[in-house]
Each structure stands twice: as structure tokens, then as C-alpha cells.
């Protein structure tokens, strides 16, 4: 009798836990569906989303159109360009060579790319991996002299020649500045060390070893089943994306994938199928500059904290596509989001709404309640409008201004422009479109007047109101 009762209790507990889990997943699906369908219409460019919790996929859906002109609906397993998420694959390829003893993280890149000028400094492989080399980003180059440059097919050497003559922006290891140029050099280094093309090496030693069946290099002329079309949105309406040669994204943004393949990629990494546990931990650790301060980037990944949880992630943007993939190790929660649309110069609140949606999906995946926007009077918003000077570096300024009843912000260092400020309280606002690091702005009053603003982006920064 006792055994029978214990068995009954055991079965009841299993049933209760299973029912609770199903209920939570159902609620997650219901809310996520509702959020996405408010922004992604059936006959417009769309989105594919995957959420996994504790090793189980709990949400995998797609909305919108893969081809607007043919009215083809997106399916969850369709293939998108993933842009800079490619950098993870390049980084792992290089780290494999490090573990094999073929290269060292502290090797100068001139050891393998002998004709790349040193510019009087030692530029290491680690500097390239962590965006601390000081090499300017070739994607920021002035193309006004040749408006058709993105239509050319480049060799790796030609891309390198596009930036190798430029002076360093800072001494290697002293600052962080995101640069696609570093990953072009890393891809070319793989070719010099292995004798194989970058694409061949990555496919055989990274993609295939991870067991990915729907991750491949983007070639504009190749027929790829289930590849979606890309679109841009400018001036309030969608357009076909501008043609951009995939060769220009060599090593730093030339892969395509699906939401599930990206999830399998994360699982393969965590199972140490590609590099050792020790090496992966280094990749997931923020690089420390020579002055002892930490960046928010490791070897191919951003590492920071958001919603009270450690986050390992990357974003990707390439002509007509945007991509996000995020892993919260403490919760064992993974999210991948792929869209076939990229807003360029859209002047509406389109981009603001997109970034808020992505942040909401992350919150839901973590089981957190969504942040609700509060209503603030125009008179109070007017008090916050003005120019603010950074205490640490007075050359940096923050401009707060109002448009259509909302506050927006511009940073003088060009890291943020026309950033919408979402009210969380009467004094605290969220910058939802700063995707890499969650950022809040708190206004401080002294003697009844706004005297300063405090931005929190992992660390706090104070800005004095100057006018």
C-alpha cells in the first residue's frame, strides 16, 4: 500500500511539473505571437524566431514573406544572410589552429601576412579577434569616388589593399573599436596557414564538424533552396535591397543560416565539438586592455549583462538582412532571430519598434515580465531637453531633443544617432535600440532643475547639463 501511494505521488508530481511547463510554453507562444504579428504582416518582409530553454526548443515560428513579389510565406527553416555572426565561425577556425600549435594568439600578423605593413607596432592575432588592433574598418571607407564598389567581386587581397595603407587609429591593445578589417585578415591568415581557401577550411573544420546542414557561404549566383529575398525600408516603405557582392563580406559577414542551425551551432560549441572547454571560455571572456579595463568583446562574441543575466551574443547586418543570436548561460536560454529586412534611413518609428520587439522577445524567453512604457507629460519631457557634457571626457556630448512627443538622443562620438528614449519611470528611460548593451538614462534634478543625466551601460557615466 505504501509503495502504491508513493508511486501515485511520484506520478502526480511528474504530471504537475509537465502540465506547468506546457502551460508556461503555451503562454510564451501566445504572447510572442501577439507581439510579432503586430509588426510583421503577411505580405511584407518577415522574421524567423527560435527560443530554446534548458536544451529544448520551446518556440520556433516564422512570420511575413520570403518573397514579397511572389507572396511566398516565410517558413521557420528558411535560409537568411546572418552578417557579422559569421565572425564567430572565423574566430573558431583561428582558435582551432591555435590549439593545433600552428599559430599563437600573440603572433604578429606579419608572420603570416608578410606584406601587411606593421605601421611601427606589433599587431597580434588576438588584437584582430578582439577588435583592439587599431586597424580602421574598411566598411566605413568613403565610397563617393566609386558608387559601384559594392557590385564588384573582390579577391581577399584586393579587400586588404583597400585598408592596409591607412594609419592605425590607436596603439594595438589600448582601445576597442569594432572593425570588420580584422576579420578579413583572420580569414586570409587561415588561407596562408592551411593552404586551403577560407571557405573550404571553415566548411570542413567548423560547419561540418558542428553538424550544420543549412549553413553555407553566400554566393549571389548560386541556387540555394529556401533562400529568402532581402529588403530595405527607407522613407516609410519597403524596397528590394541593393545588390552587394558577398565577396566584400569575406570572413566577417558572408555566411547564411537558419535559426535552428544557429541553435545547433551554439550547442556544438558548448559540447566542445570544435574547440576545448578552456579555449571556449577564453572566447567567451571580455578582452582586457593594457590599462586593465575590460571591453565587452571576446574572440568573436560580445559578452555583457542584460535583464540581470550574463549574455553572450552577436548581431549581424548586411544588405537586406538583420540577425541576432543570444545565449544566457546562467539560465541556459538561447534565442535566434533572423529577418529579411534592414532599415537604412527610415525616418519613422519603424526601427524603434523593431528593437523594442527584439528586447521583448529576450525578456519573454527569460521568463521576465515585459517593461511597460509610462506616459510622461510634455512639460516634464521639455525639462530634459538640452545638451550634456561627459564628466570623464568633456569633448563627448549628449544631445537630448523632442520629436512628436518623444525624447531622442544623439551622441557626439557617432556611436548613437536618433535613439528613441522609452520611459520606464518619470526620471528613467531606456535606449531600446542600443542592441549590444542594455542602456538606461536617468535624469537628476538639483534645486528643482535638471542638472545631469546618468547613462548606465554596464558602468555608469555622468553627463552634466550645459544648456
Walk me through the structure.
The protein has helices spanning 2-37, 86-99, 125-129, 156-161, 180-194, 198-207, 259-270, 277-283, 350-365, 378-384; strands at residues 47-53, 56-63, 65-67, 72-73, 80-81, 216-217, 231-234, 237-240, 255-257, 302-306, 309-318, 321-328, 333-339, 341-343, 386-390, 397-403, 406-411, 419-423, 428-431, 439-446, 449-457, 459-465. The chain has 467 residues and is of the alpha+beta class. The protein folds into two domains: 81-365, Beta-lactamase, CATH 3.40.710; 378-465, Lipocalin. An eight-stranded antiparallel β-barrel has the order 15-16-17-18-19-20-21-22. Strands 2-1-13-12-11-10 form a six-stranded antiparallel sheet, sandwiched between helices. A hairpin with a 2-residue loop joins β20 (439-446) and β21. The longest helix has 36 residues, at 2-37. Residues 9-13 and 15-20 have low confidence and may be disordered.
Low-confidence stretches: 9-13, 15-20
Rg (C-alpha, Å): 24 Å
> Beta-strand level of the residues, as a percent range?
25-35%
Distance, first to last CA: 80 Å
Mean pLDDT: 88
- The CATH superfamily of the largest domain is DD-peptidase/beta-lactamase superfamily
Work out the helicity level. Answer: 25-40%
What would CATH call the architecture of the largest domain? Answer: 3-Layer(aba) Sandwich
Q: How many domains?
A: 2
Shape: globular
How many individual β-strands?
22
Structural class: alpha+beta
| Main sheet strand line-up | 15-16-17-18-19-20-21-22
> Helix tally?
10
For the biggest sheet, the summary is: 8 strands, antiparallel, barrel
